[in-house]
Design goal:
The chain is α/β, with parallel strands linked by helices. Helices cover 38% and strands 19% of the residues. Helix 12 links the parallel strand 11 and strand 12. The structure holds adenosine-5'-diphosphate and magnesium ion.
């Protein structure tokens, strides 16, 4: 048996089972060795039925004497009850609520192993286990029961018909017969971190020793589990570091930061930057100065003031004779950035031009010519910027807003319009630094972790659909006081269909003619023509309309400081990060702002989301909760960033180990005296991890 042996040829597997295993991504002996349990059970306390004491947790091996399913008619609740005997003279009753699924398998005569807490049924003078764990023992029992009880046992996720018990048996066989994988972790790293050898780690993860701590096992923190988790992160981080080192070695533009550049930045700044803004400005300036291409992610919560930082980077580029391009995900946002940046940069007599799908063909033609002639210093636009006939004379800086809306390919498309331009991507969904560096592997990360002064935290409230009248009168009070408000419907721009648009439109009718007959109400959705959208936005900005009924087209970046209330209808249909983004549309001025989440039905996850928003205004915390509730795989950015399916490691749960692994990987690769180790690491990654981690050109 080799590590690479297909599972089909392992004794006890065969083609049918091999197929079930393959569906779980388990193809070779090595895959099986790395198939880690997701839970452990303490079955050290094996007793005969007559020895069982009420209150204790124990394991019992017994035969089913009698079994029946009772259905309660009024509630859809089946009680499955089995009576068991083991020759000790006493009987045990096992009961499962919702036990229908046992009716076919736990028939009289079946031998089973039960694990659970013992109770006493005083009425019947019987020992009972309620909802015990159960495993069916096979009849032709050649098997050694010590594998499944009398110890802390591993519980595996079943694969098709392959039960946790079958996994235990298969893995036991493989552990006995297969060679162990090569331990490629440099021993210097292993000893420094204090980790066991790989072979030990694999064995003990499957078969914990007699002294293993159940608590640590179930928290994935035994030395053995830590070693396996560390490995996954370590090789990933080594790969990322090598890849980045290579990218950094490329030649890019070395911008000069002269006295004049500094003066221009000072002249542009309309207010005193926060300490966090100053810090990231410095990081970006340093990056632009050095002769390698900048690839930097600027993350900061909604309203943290990223745009001004982008403007400052643009000044550096423009003063050095280069052009800057700003790419935004929607017309509305591109427009708003254009207006905002133009106002900032007009003072310096720079030429800022918009380029979106909204302009007519002649205008576009003209702007493109001006870009090609280097008459335009900065162009702000949407996807229209990516078209092949947009040619820059000297593109030096690419700024991409709301990076998760764009793929890597679009970033590259814009970069290719210059010669190794510097790139700054911005996101309003900040996540912990190490996680960001890992998810967005090719980017450096700058974080604005502070809001401009004077912001009042937004007050968030929850209302049910039946309380919506009260919500509307609350809204009316604010309109009366001179404020403005958003009412948002759960339609995502890309999925706006005729039917959903109709819903938004009829809601608009309802609000404008019945609920607020004397208030100017505007409507904004993604299916409107660009000039209609512009118009709706401009009228709201100018204060002509007081209420803007909108779909999620306003999700990103829209900035109207006088708007102080946002009502989000059917809030249960939005994700957490998205709700936070939407909420960020208010709280941009000096007035106390409110976000009201209206829901009709809520499940547990939905309730948790609402609670998180009511409790917190902190984008970091919210992003973290979002990942916890959805799982990082679903979290945006993750999918396109090419992070592979980690096997045992979990980006959220194991953030501390990720941190450690990243530090060790970087230290190793940067170290001069460990050249031999580094070469070995490169070889190992190329052989084993390249495909899994999609690390195109490592080393
Ligand atoms: P975001 O990070 O969400 O893109 P913006 O760049 O749109 O944030 O900034 C939000 C608002 O805060 C803008 O109106 C901006 O002018 C203002 N702002 C940014 N930085 C500061 C600061 N240091 N002091 C005062 N206001 C600021
Ligand atoms: Mg922004």
């Amino acid at each position: 048996m080799e590590l690479s042996t297909p599972l089909q040829y392992v004794k006890g597997i065969g083609p049918a089972r091999a197929q079930m295993l393959a569906a779980k991504g388990l193809e070779t002996v090595s895959d099986l060795l790395y198939y880690a349990p997701f839970r452990y059970e303490d079955r050290r306390n094996v007793k005969s039925i007559s020895e069982l004491a009420p209150g204790e947790k124990a394991a019992v091996l017994a035969r089913i004497a009698d079994a029946k399913l009772t259905n309660f008619r009024r509630r859809a609740l089946g009680l499955f009850e089995a009576t068991l005997e083991d020759g000790s003279g006493s009987r045990l009753s096992a009961r499962w609520f919702h036990g229908e699924r046992y009716a076919d398998s736990l028939t009289p005569g079946t031998r089973v192993a039960l694990f659970g807490k013992v109770e006493l049924d005083r009425m019947r003078g019987l020992r009972v286990m309620v909802q015990p764990e159960v495993e069916i023992l096979s009849e032709d029992d050649d098997e050694d029961e010590t594998l499944h009880s009398g110890r802390v046992v591993a519980v595996y996720e079943a694969a098709g018909k392959i039960s946790t018990r079958a996994f235990r048996k298969l893995i036991d066989r493989v552990l006995k017969e297969a060679p162990m994988p090569e331990d490629a972790l440099p021993s210097s790293v292993r000893t420094r971190v204090g980790l066991p050898h790989l072979a030990t780690a694999i064995r003990e993860t499957h078969c914990p020793g007699p002294d293993a701590s159940l608590a640590l096992l179930n928290e994935f923190r035994t030395p053995a589990q830590t070693r396996l988790i560390f490995d996954e992160f370590f090789w990933l981080e080594c790969g990322l570091t090598l890849k980045k080192t290579k990218a950094r070695a490329a030649t890019g533009i070395s911008f000069e930061i002269t006295e004049r550049v500094r003066d221009q930045i000072k002249a542009m700044l309309p207010f005193k930057p926060t300490a966090a803004q100053k810090r990231v400005m410095q990081e970006i300036a340093d990056d632009m100065k050095n002769p390698h291409p900048m690839n930097r992610l600027l993350q900061g919560d909604v309203g943290s003031g990223k745009t001004i930082v982008a403007a400052q980077a643009a000044i550096i580029a423009i003063e050095n004779g280069y052009q800057a391009a700003v790419l935004a995900p929607t017309e509305i946002l591109a427009n708003q950035h254009f207006v905002y940046l133009k106002r900032l940069l007009d003072k310096l007599h720079y030429v800022v031009a918009p380029l979106t799908g909204a302009a007519n063909a002649r205008e576009k033609q003209q702007i493109k010519r001006l870009i090609a002639d280097r008459y335009v210093h900065m162009v702000v636009g949407t996807h229209a910027l990516l078209q092949s006939d947009v040619v820059f004379s000297k593109l030096g800086l690419v700024i991409i807003d709301e990076q998760h809306r764009f793929g890597v390919r679009q970033r590259l498309a814009l970069m290719e319009k210059g010669a190794q331009p510097d790139v700054l991507v911005m996101t309003a969904t900040p996540i912990p630094r190490t996680l960001a560096l890992t998810l967005y592997g090719d980017l450096d990360v700058s974080t604005i972790d502070e809001l401009p002064p004077g912001r009042k935290p937004i007050v968030t409230r929850h209302a049910t659909q039946s309380q919506v009248e009260g919500v509307y009168s609350f809204l009316a009070q604010h309109i009366k006081a001179g404020r403005q408000a958003y009412v948002v419907y759960p339609i995502v721009e890309e999925t706006e269909t005729t039917a959903t648009i109709k819903a938004a439109e009829s809601m608009f009718e309802h609000l404008s003619s019945i609920v607020f007959p004397n208030v100017a109400v505007g409507l904004l959705h993604g299916r409107m023509r660009p000039e209609e959208k512009d118009d709706a936005m401009m009228r709201f900005k100018a204060g002509e309309t007081k209420i803007l009924v909108s779909t999620t087209v306003i999700e990103v970046g829209v900035d109207v400081p006088n708007a102080s209330v946002i009502v989000i209808e059917q809030a249960e249909r939005f994700g957490l990060a998205q709700l936070h983004q939407l909420r960020g549309r208010v709280g941009r001025g000096s007035h106390q702002s409110y976000c009201i989440l209206v829901t009709s039905k809520l499940n547990d996850v939905g309730r948790e989301r609402i609670r998180t928003l009511i409790d917190s205004n902190d984008g970091f915390h919210i992003a973290e909760m979002d990942m916890k509730l959805r799982g990082p795989g679903e979290f945006y950015g993750t999918k396109q960033s090419g992070i592979p399916g980690l096997r045992l490691a979990d980006l959220m749960r194991d953030a501390d180990i990720l941190e450690l692994a990243r530090k060790e990987a970087q230290t190793l690769i940067a170290s001069e005296e460990n050249k031999e180790d580094v070469r070995a690491v490169v070889r190992y990654i190329q052989e084993h991890w390249q495909r899994r981690y999609a690390l195109a050109q490592v080393g």
